[in-house]
Design a protein that fits this description.
- This protein has about 350 residues and is mainly beta.
- The protein folds into two domains: about 35-175, Sandwich (Immunoglobulin-like), CATH 2.60.40; about 190-345, Immunoglobulin-like (Sandwich), CATH 2.60.40.
- About 5% of the residues lie in helices and about 40% in strands.
- The strands form seven sheets. The protein has a six-stranded mixed sheet with strand order 7-8-9-4-12-13, with no helix packed on it.
- A hairpin with a 2-residue loop joins strand 8 and strand 9.
- It starts with a helix and ends with a strand.
- The model is unreliable at about 15-30 (pLDDT under 50).
């Protein structure tokens, strides 16, 4: 009877344990491997300060009170060059506030030897989050970078901590990661005057009406374009177009140049001058030739008529010429040769 009672008690205990196991299963949390783990450096050159951008996805997330550690390999023998929390950014889709020690939602970020430890007090990172850690000048407010070790392949950086997940990545440090590339661009300037209108004329002048030069040499009573010229350059300081020559001359007789003041046409008074307009590029007509009146400043010859202050695509200049005479202007055949020169400043 006594043995039967003991067996019955044992049976009862085993049954109770079985029921507990069935209705209260034990949950086991297993560590997972970090995925999509990488570290992008701003330079791979040995013994050179570099930024690090470490990225990984954590399947399990990081719970409040847990840590993330980033441990650099032995080759970083001198440590991490004094970086601190101000040289780091931690982001899980939104920026996480860092300090030397954690407090509330603020994470702590501390460096000991070759290991950086991020510690959460009350904040957490959700499962399946992508975490980005920036270290160096790429961090907001960062002013210190980690110095690369001597050249070596497959230097492992371990990511762990008290969080459930862990992983590692490898970087390669080389003697020099920079390729020196050289190229040259030849200085250029292009200047042209419409060859179809290299000889222009006013026809017969009159003291009662203004005349304007035309490409056919007959002149016009209406202001018109006599010829065009164009200029372009890749010069840093652009170009200048100047004019040189004399006013209309017949032997010892001349028709007065208008001078340095842009002036309207005044029939019955001797006047010889020009004005210009510009289109395209960044070139512009220079004073006093840019207004609606005319000028011809022989006292300043060679005088600038147009210019660009920097590199310019093609600017086309339309040039118009005016001639007026008085009733006492000497008879004769009046001519002049005007020379335009374009000079680039590189």
């Amino acid at each position: 009877m006594y043995m039967r009672s003991i067996i019955k008690k044992i049976y009862t205990i085993l049954l109770a344990l079985l029921l507990v196991a069935v209705f209260n299963p034990i949950t086991t949390v297993k560590a997972a491997a970090l995925t999509n783990v990488s570290d992008t450096l701003s330079t791979l050159t040995e013994l050179t300060a570099a930024d690090h951008t470490i990225v990984f996805t954590t399947p399990s997330g990081v719970a409040a009170g847990e840590t993330i550690t980033i441990t650099f390999p032995d080759s970083f023998a001198s440590g991490l060059n004094g970086v601190d929390f101000a040289d780091m950014d931690l982001n899980d889709g939104s920026e996480i506030t860092l300090a030397a020690t954690c407090s509330g939602a603020t994470w702590g970020a501390a460096v000991s030897g070759r290991t950086i430890t991020f510690t959460s007090c009350t904040d957490a990172i959700d499962p399946a989050s992508t975490v980005t850690i920036e270290i160096g000048l790429n961090a907001s407010g960062g002013d210190t970078q980690i110095v690369n070790p001597v050249a070596a392949d497959s230097l492992n950086i371990d990511i762990a901590g008290t969080m459930a997940d862990s992983g590692s990545l490898a970087i390669s440090i080389i003697s020099d990661d920079s390729i020196s590339v050289t190229a040259s661009v030849d200085p250029t300037i292009t200047f042209a005057i419409n060859e179809a209108d290299m000889t222009i004329g006013f026809g017969t002048l009159s003291d009662s009406a203004a005349r304007y030069a035309t490409g056919d040499g007959n002149g016009s009573a209406v202001e018109t374009e006599a010829h065009t010229m164009s200029c372009s350059t890749n010069a840093d300081h652009g170009y200048s177009i100047t004019i040189n020559g004399t006013t209309l001359t017949s032997g010892s007789n001349t028709i007065d140049a208008i001078g340095a003041v842009n002036s309207a046409s005044n029939p019955g008074t001797e006047q010889f001058g020009l004005r210009m307009t510009a289109s395209g590029g960044s070139g512009a007509v220079s004073a006093p030739y840019a207004a609606s009146g005319f000028a011809f400043d022989t006292a300043s010859f060679p005088d600038e008529v147009a210019a660009a202050s920097g590199p310019s695509t093609t600017t086309t200049y339309s040039v118009r010429y005016l001639a007026n005479i008085s009733s006492t202007t000497e008879a004769g055949s009046y001519t002049t040769t005007l020379t335009y020169v374009a000079t680039a400043t590189f």
